[in-house]
Amino acid sequence: MSQSTVEQQPVFDPYSDASVVLPQLDSLLPVRLDQQISGPLSGDYQARHKGSGLERDGVRQYVFGDDPRNIDWKATARSFDGDLLVRERFKEITPQVWLVSDLARDRYTQNPGYFTEQSLGFSALLAMGALAERQNMPTGLLVANDMRIMGTKTPASGMRNRVRHVEMIKTAVQEHDSQGSTKLSDVLQIAAKRCVGSLVVVVSDFRDDSVSTEEASWALPLRQIASKNQVIAIETTNAWDYKLNEHIGRYKSGDKKFNVLTGKKGSDLRERYADAANHQQRYIDATISSIRAPHLTLSTARPDWATSLQEQLFVATRSVK
């Protein structure tokens, strides 16, 4: 099938209502994917470390946003007041899922392709959250913009939790501060302290540092996360990550996103740019490979991003069996 005949799939819109965004994203990853996965997203997932919660096989009162599938109808029937009761689950049986991203920063809003890296990345993040939700996995969120890092204190389940995540992402995207200096390493450092025995999905372009002879600032906290959790890395890319083309004038000298000085014009600059971009890509690939994490790549040049995500998830989860 040629690229021109591929239908463009919808992406997250930070200015749309959550009731519109979530159903669109839900429809992109079919439920049957749950049945195929036996790796990091399966219900029989075995974490490297046990969860910190107590093992309880009890029930509690139903609250708005709980998954109706967790209602214990027998316990409800026996209850004196008739309130709905839901089952409490073992943390060791059902892992928590943390969704982590730095894509709310302004520099992810301009790029070539069918959509921005920001919309693409958050679409993937929310789709992974929906996939986890279908398998009764509580999800938490950590998201960074240029000004600050925001997120949930503990993972939770249900539609109310998912809507809260969407609203939090929208708030992060709509805050602007050109003087902000938040980096991927900052949000990963928080995740390294907060996440234990969980599945951590990191969505980023992994390009906010210059890479020469020194290690990128995000590499160490990513390794710390991987030492206590399972990690899935989803890298977003666009054409400007690899080739300068006619957009030389768009960048200022010393632009760290592309790890190259862009103050001069000419073929020499294009060659140096391409060499630096290739070096940086090899570094990203090697770093993620070193923590044995599935490495998924989504490009703004591909309109059917959800199909790409599904295909890569299928391959990644088969490889860890």
What percentage of residues falls in helices of 4 or more residues? 25-40%
Largest sheet: 6 strands, mixed
Sequence of strands across the biggest β-sheet: 5-4-3-6-7-8
The shape, in one word, is globular
| Distinct helical segment count | 9
Strand content: 5-15%
CATH architecture call of the largest domain:
3-Layer(aba) Sandwich
What's the β-strand tally? 8
Low-confidence stretches: 45-57, 249-263
The named CATH superfamily of the largest domain: von Willebrand factor, type A domain
Total domain modules: 2
Terminal-residue CA separation: 31 Å
- What CATH calls the topology of the largest domain is Rossmann fold
Summarize the structure.
This protein has helices at residues 18-26, 32-36, 73-78, 117-134, 159-174, 184-194, 219-228, 267-290, 305-319, and strands spanning 59-61, 85-87, 97-101, 139-144, 149-151, 199-204, 230-237, 295-299. With 321 residues, the chain is of the alpha/beta class.
Task: Explain what the structure shows.
Strands 5-4-3-6-7-8 form a 6-stranded mixed β-sheet, sandwiched between helices. The chain has a two-stranded antiparallel sheet with strand order 1-2. The protein folds into 2 domains: 8-43 and 92-319, 3-Layer(aba) Sandwich (Rossmann fold); 56-89, no CATH class. By secondary structure, the chain is α/β, with parallel strands linked by helices. The chain has 9 helices and 8 strands. Helix 4 (117-134) runs antiparallel to helix 5 and helix 6 (184-194) runs parallel beside helix 7 (219-228).
List the helices and strands and how they pair.
Elements lengths: L17 H9 L5 H5 L22 E3 L11 H6 L6 E3 L9 E5 L15 H18 L4 E6 L4 E3 L7 H16 L9 H11 L4 E6 L14 H10 L1 E8 L29 H24 L4 E5 L5 H15 L2
Parallel strand pairs: 3-4, 3-6, 6-7, 7-8
Antiparallel strand pairs: 1-2, 4-5
Helix pairs in contact: 1-5, 4-5, 6-7
